[in-house]
Every structure is written in C-alpha cells, then in structure tokens.
Amino acid sequence: MQIDDNRLTEIMRGFDKKKALVIGDLCLDEYIYGTANSLSPEAPIPRVVIDSRKYVPGAAGNVACSLSALGAQTTAFGILGSDEYGMILLRELKKRGISAPEILDSSRHTPTYSRVVVGNSTRRQQLVRFDLENNREISEDTITKILGYIEENKKDFDAVIFADYDEIGNGLARPSLISRLAEISDFYGNVLVGISRKRINQLRNFSLLIANEREARQATGLELRTEPIQKIGEMLARHTGTNIVITRGEEGLSVFDKNIDDVYDIPSFARSVIDVTGAGDSLTATMALSLASGSSLSEAAYLGSYAAAVAVGKEGTATVTREEIARAINEKYGK
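Below the sequence we write its predicted structure tokens.
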C-alpha cells in the first residue's frame, strides 16, 4: 500500500483546529520516588525515605493528554471521587491544557495507582504498587448527568473517544451511554472511537474500535493463537458494525475496513522499544484526530503506527507531538 508522506504531514496540520472529547474512566497515576538503604526497625522490609512524588493522569486521562500533546483542544469527562486525589487529577489535567468538567461522586474514590520506586535516575526499581479502586457501580443518577452533558454539548466536538479502562465492571461502559454516543455521532457526523480492555464487543456502530490482540481474541472467544488474526478482526467488525484496528506489537497493525470489506496490515515503525506504556493511547489519539481531519482509514492507521513508534522509544507513560511524528516519517522509521 502506497502512502504519500507529504499527505500524512498535511493531515497533521489540521490537528490544532480540532476539538476532542474523551469520555471514560479517569484515574491518577502516582509515583513515589525514594531511597532504600536500610531495613525497617519494625519488620524485615525496606525502609524507604521519600524524595519526591509525581502525578500523571492515567487511563482515559492519558488519552486526553495524548490528544492535547498533538495540539487538539481537549476535554476530559468522567467521574471523580470528592477526595484529595480527585483534586490532584483535576489540577494535573488543567496543567496540560485540558478542560475537565467535574462530576464528583462522594460515594466513590478517585481510582489511584501508586508506585513506590527506589534508586536513582540511571537505575530505578519499582518496589511495590498499591491501588485504590471502587467496588460499587456508578449510580443511575450519575449516568443521567453524563448523558445530560453529552446532549448539551453534542455539536461541540469533532472527535469523541470513549475510553473504557474498567477491569471489574464498575465503570462507564453502560448500554444507555454507549448507544446514545453512537446515535449522536452518526447524526452529526462526528468521529467516534472506542477502546475497551474487556468490553470492546459491546461498543457498536462507532467510527472505529481499537484493541490489542489479546483484547480482540477475548472479545471473540477465539483465544487460541492458532486462530488467524484475519478471522478475529472480521468477526469483530461484523459483530460491532465498525472499522477495527488490532495492534500487534512488533508485528504492527491489522486494519479491517468494513466499508470496502478489506483487510490489510501496516508495519511497526519502532526503532527501539524502551517502554510500551502509553503507546496505545498515542495511537488512538492520532487516529481519531486524523479521521476528524479528513484522512482515510489507511492514512490514519499509518500515522497512528508512527505515533506508537515514537511513544515506545520513551520511558514511562509517554505522549508524542506532531513534530515528533513528522520527524519519524521524514527519517523513515522502520524502513
């Protein structure tokens, strides 16, 4: 498949004119850095002296950060607990130029994932991670508030990403919310992209669904590696009525275009892999903005693959910029 590099660069020029909305499961990633040179006097465990803390928006929040880094005017919309972590998350989103209308639920925590990391900048080791999650469902009243926000602002966005990061069934992936998002986007011609860790097959009639290979196999029930990826993607596309992109690590992307009943692969352009964290979010944000800027599905997938190649070359949860993607294209990453 021939793709014009100049055309890819031209598509990205329109990103800063786009308004993007992320609806999904917001969380806060906390990194606690310190040194551990002795054992605790209370138990045979390391004694960590804290040097610093870093907070980063995670899950749907990182998708929003990826959109903002690409130049889009970005809004992140989700549910926060009325707690200290919720306020920190709002602050971190706004620091990155992201609008974050608040829906606070006093019965819930702001999901927070804290890592204790010891060592210095050249050699760090994660010692322990502790997670703060919710064990109760979102109330119907809160879902009604979210639907009200969508109705009120349905004409304001060029691209909408529904980001379901919930692992235990207590997140925003509700049939009423999903179906209304699809109806509104279809009526107004907005780009609607969906990602989901465990419920990708429940997102129907979107513009595009993006899943990694494990998620796609679980969604179709064809988890044996002997089942060809083409069969997985075609089943998912038929079931959801949606274009499908399956990310496959070093094997690149498999793209299933429902409009022309076509399947094709796009290579990975990664030069080196330092950390895959956040690469999927960078790919998702880049593809959503590309489609909103008038690209074809194949052009969007190429740009998304370049964005992922840049992201995996960075340490930690990373975002990428248009300039970095353009540099990767010009330097012919992976070619």
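Residues 287 and 301 are 6 Å apart (CA to CA).
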